[in-house]
Each structure stands twice: as structure tokens, then as C-alpha cells.
Design goal:
FAD/NAD(P)-binding domain; globular; 19% strand; 15 helices; binds flavin-adenine dinucleotide; 492 residues
Length: 492
């Protein structure tokens, strides 16, 4: 039996481990932390429960495959349900717009702000065409480079990817009002990039939500990890917790296994869920031109300031998922992604999961997660905890100004994580929360390939690898990396 070792039990690592086990491999995962899930994480304190990582589940059918391939049913492991409205959007002038997948409800929201509904329909058609095109090859076939792209799509299909515009231009050409432009630009949040730098085909992301819906997991999203943990146990995947991998050993151009706590574990194939750049540098000791080239192309996606607040009251105007928009979103994107400074007036994502799930906060109270996107860590000019603290104050002032009156007086539990904590916890490259940035000038949204270009039996999975960050994408990546491993072994 062939032996696979997976480094890291994030969702990408888990998906690769399950998929390889289903292909008949003996699989062991080594995870540095004391729990599985990676960035899918939870913080619980005094009766409040916060999704410390992801809070929106999309494309559950990608997770479903992991269960169905073993004759099991996703819902028996992970209790999911849809959320309404999808998002509530607040603007500084007092305007509030909700997003619904139902046409009649969405039409009423558009009417409220004077956006012709035909514009929404036209945009969703444009988005759906891009999604179908991207899904058919890049996502489902796990394409990794131009050669594979050309072979799958043929040159004549390239213009359909809307390659010569950025995402914002694609949005702006469909909508009349700033409200709808700001909202649809912000779908880029799913991959932590800038709508002014990402290629227009990223507008496919609206379809992920409008066609396939937006989902919640009862008890909080960490229950995805709990369900997958059960599946791994039933399948016989060996999970080693508190086992940081220190080195990947090589011999004759191949990797031979890993070292944990000074002990060598041999493997026929190693799959790293540790991000590509830290893995090459820290586990393989690579440096020089090879890593410099990777660093140029694989710039990290943004990081975030995660502010969890347990309140002694509820703010009834909040939906489950809320966005409080910057008054100048172009400047917000420019500050975070080009100047790489902390924003003065960031767009804020605010989660109030108690709208869907009464178990996450004491009765009559809110457990809020607030997440502004902020730059990844610049090691040459690092920011201090005091800088992040000052941003937190600006964030809370903004929320009070935009209707969450006296918010700060109602805080009974506070837990804040900066990019420094995110890097420390997950070994993520410069504290990035979604892996590699999608930027049309730097990488045209391509991430690293799943198979190492240096060592043929070393593979990568997760947000720094195609197709990139976000829970469903890294789970898909795990399934596709398993196919690549099997195909590679077949030709050996
Ligand atoms: P990770 O989750 O980073 O897992 C990597 C694992 O490897 C970690 O467990 C780490 O501890 C381990 N590891 C690293 N180095 C070693 C080593 N040397 N030895 C052993 N183990 C090691 N996505 C969504 O779909 N919806 C959302 O709403 C959403 N919101 C988010 C909000 C926040 C605050 C964050 C942080 C992320 C969010 N995401 C969201 C993104 C999503 O969480 C990630 O894209 C995804 O979970 C990443 O999975 P991964 O497999 O790439 O890596």
C-alpha cells in the first residue's frame, strides 16, 4: 500500500487526506495545532461563540462529494441550512440594501435605491457565463498552468474570460448606482483581493452565492471540522495533533518523508497544506532565485483584524451577515492593496450569527465578529499591536456612527486577533487569510501548481495553490490534488 503524508489539517489537507484514503492510500496527517480545521476555527468565551475564521459556507456540493464517495451523507455529519437575507449592506448616507437570491425580493431591493432590476439580471447573466466557463476547466479539472489551460479551453475561448478589464470595470459597466457597484465589487472579499486589481472573470463569484445559495452550519461553522474529523476517523486516516513538521527530507530529486520532533516518517508522497512559500523556505530550506521568483508571483492575499465582541444586548437592525461600506471604496482598496497601509475608513464585515442560531450567545445578546480586511505583514516595516488597536477604535467608532449606538458600552467579552496572531497560529504567509492574492498584473489570479516543479512526489494543497482561497476552493483543491497524485503514480 502506498503511503501519503499530509502536512497540516486545514480544510485543504483534510480533503486531500480523505480523497487519497478513498483511493486506497495509507494516509497520515501531521498538524501543529491541538485541533484540526486550520483557519476554520472557533473562539468560545463565557457563553458566547464566535467563528474565528470562515462564517459563510458556499458550494456545499463540493464538500458533499467527500462523503458520497464513501457512501455517506453530508447532512448526517454537518447540519447545514440557508441564510436570509444573504447580506445586509449599510452605507454612510443611511441607505440599507439586502441581497436575496429570489428575483422578486432582489427586484424590490434594487427599486429602493433606483437601480433598474434589468441591470441586476444582466450582471447575473454575465457572472453566470463566467462561472460556467471557469468552473468547467479551472475549477473542476484542476488546471494549473497555461499549457493545461490552452489544451482544455483552446485559444478561441480565451476572450470569453473578459481578460482585458479588472473586476470593478466589469461591475461598473452593469450598474448605475454606487450602492450596487460597491456591493458587487465587494464579492472580491471571498478571496481577499482588490476589485480594482483582480481580473474581471472574478465576477463569477456572484454566481457562487446567487445560484448555489449561502449556507450556515448549526452550532457554528467549526462543526464542518467536527464532521470531517468524524469522517476521517471512520475511514482510518491517522491524525497526529500537536505535531509540527520540522523538515521535508529529500534524496535523489525526490522527497522521502518528514521529520517531526526529530523523528523521521517515510512516505511515498508528501502533500503540504502548509502554504507554498513557507513550506519551501522553512521545511525544504530553499532560498535564492527559486523562492524570489515565487514571492514575486505569489503575493499574499490580504490579512484581517478579527474583532469578536460579546454584547449584553442585540442590535435588531443587523442581519446575520452585514457589510458597513467605506464611503470611498476605491480608496479603501488602494490603501490596503497598493499602499499597504491600515485603512482610515475600511469596509467592515460584521457577523451576527444569533440571527440564525440562538446557541451562539446568551438570550437577548449578540456575539459579533467584525472583520476589516487589512494588509498582510510587511516584515521590513512591521506594524505594532498599538497600530492595530488604533484601527480597532476607528472600526468601533464607524459602527457607532452608522447606527450601532453606544456599541462600546455594551461589550462584555472582547477577543482580538491581529495578522501577527494569524501567522503564528496557522504558519500562514505574512498573516494572509486567503492564501495568494488574485491580481491581473501579478498572476492573472493563478496560484501555485499542485505538483512541485522541483520534486515530483511533493504536492501542495490549500489557499496558496490553484484555484485559491475560500473553504470550497481548498476542499476542491484537495480532491484535485489526490487525482494528480494517483495519475502521477500511474505513470511511474
Ligand atoms: P489552513 O486553514 O491555513 O490550514 C493549514 C494547516 O496547516 C493549519 O492547520 C496549520 O496549523 C497547519 N500547519 C502549517 N504549518 C505546519 C507544519 N509545519 N506542521 C504541521 N502543521 C502545519 N472562507 C470561506 O469560504 N468563507 C468565509 O466566510 C471565510 N472567511 C474567513 C475569515 C477569516 C477571518 C479567515 C482567517 C479566513 C476566512 N476564509 C473564508 C478563508 C478560509 O478559511 C481559508 O481559505 C481556508 O480555510 C484555508 O484552508 P487551507 O487548507 O488552505 O489552510
Amino acid at each position: 500500500q502506498r503511503k501519503a503524508i499530509v502536512i497540516g489539517a486545514g480544510l485543504g489537507g483534510i480533503s486531500a487526506a480523505v480523497s487519497l484514503k478513498q483511493e486506497g492510500y495509507e494516509v497520515a496527517i501531521f498538524e501543529k495545532n491541538s485541533q484540526i480545521g486550520g483557519k476554520l476555527n472557533v473562539h468560545r468565551e463565557r457563553g458566547y461563540s464566535f467563528d474565528l475564521g470562515p462564517s459563510i459556507l458556499t458550494l456545499p456540493h463540493i464538500f458533499r462529494r467527500l462523503f458520497e464517495r464513501s457512501g455517506k451523507n453530508l447532512e448526517d455529519y454537518i447540519p447545514i441550512r440557508t441564510v436570509r437575507p444573504h447580506w445586509r449592506n449599510f452605507f454612510e448616507d443611511g441607505t440599507v440594501v439586502d441581497l436575496y437570491p429570489e428575483a422578486d425580493k432582489m427586484a424590490a431591493e434594487a427599486l429602493k435605491v433606483g437601480e433598474p432590476y434589468e441591470n441586476v439580471e444582466r450582471f447575473l447573466k454575465y457572472s453566470a457565463d463566467l462561472y460556467d466557463l471557469t468552473n468547467d476547466g479551472y475549477f473542476e479539472q484542476g488546471l494549473d498552468n497555461w499549457r493545461e489551460f490552452g489544451k482544455h479551453y483552446g485559444l478561441w475561448k480565451f476572450p470569453q474570460f473578459d481578460l482585458f478589464r479588472n473586476m470593478h470595470s466589469g461591475v461598473a459597466s452593469h450598474f448605475d448606482t454606487r450602492y450596487f457597484r460597491d456591493v458587487f465589487d465587494f464579492f472580491i472579499k471571498y478571496v481577499g483581493s482588490s476589485a480594482f486589481r483582480a481580473p474581471a472573470f472574478m465576477n463569477s463569484m456572484a454566481t457562487i452565492q446567487f445560484r448555489y445559495d449561502l449556507w450556515y452550519v448549526d452550532g457554528g461553522l467549526y462543526n464542518i471540522a467536527v464532521g470531517l474529523g468524524r469522517l476521517m476517523e471512520e475511514l482510518g486516516v491517522k491524525v497526529h495533533l500537536e505535531s509540527a513538521v520540522e523538515e521535508v527530507r529529500r534524496e535523489g530529486g525526490r522527497v522521502t518523508g518528514i521529520v517531526v520532533g526529530g523523528e523521521f516518517h517515510a512516505a511515498d508522497v508528501v502533500i503540504s497544506n502548509m502554504e507554498v512559500i513557507p513550506a519551501y523556505k522553512e521545511l525544504l530550506g530553499e532560498e535564492g532565485a527559486f523562492t524570489r521568483k515565487l514571492e514575486k508571483r505569489l503575493e499574499p492575499a490580504c490579512s484581517g483584524l478579527i474583532i469578536d465582541l460579546g454584547l449584553d444586548r442585540q442590535y435588531p437592525q443587523l442581519a446575520h451577515h452585514n457589510f458597513f461600506f467605506s464611503d470611498d471604496q476605491r480608496e479603501h482598496f488602494r490603501t490596503v492593496f497598493e499602499k499597504r497601509e491600515l485603512p482610515h475608513d475600511p469596509t467592515l464585515y460584521v457577523v451576527a450569527a444569533s440571527r440564525t442560531d440562538a446557541t451562539v450567545a446568551p438570550q437577548g445578546c449578540d456575539a459579533l465578529k467584525i472583520l476589516p480586511h487589512i494588509p498582510y505583514i510587511d516584515d521590513e516595516h512591521p506594524l505594532s499591536r498599538a497600530d492595530y488597536e488604533a484601527l480597532k477604535d476607528r472600526v468601533l467608532e464607524k459602527l457607532e456612527r452608522m447606527g450601532l449606538e453606544n456599541l462600546r458600552q455594551h461589550v462584555v467579552v472582547e477577543h482580538v486577533w491581529t495578522p501577527l496572531d494569524i501567522r503564528e497560529q496557522y504558519n500562514s504567509n505574512k498573516g494572509s487569510i486567503y492564501g495568494v492574492v488574485s491580481d491581473r498584473w501579478k498572476n492573472l489570479a493563478f496560484k501555485a501548481p499542485k505538483q512541485s516543479t522541483k520534486y515530483p512526489n511533493l504536492f501542495f494543497v490549500g489557499g496558496s495553490v490553484n484555484p485559491g482561497g475560500g473553504m470550497p476552493m481548498v476542499v476542491l483543491c484537495g480532491q484535485n490534488v489526490a487525482k494528480k497524485v494517483v495519475a502521477w503514480h500511474a505513470q511511474c
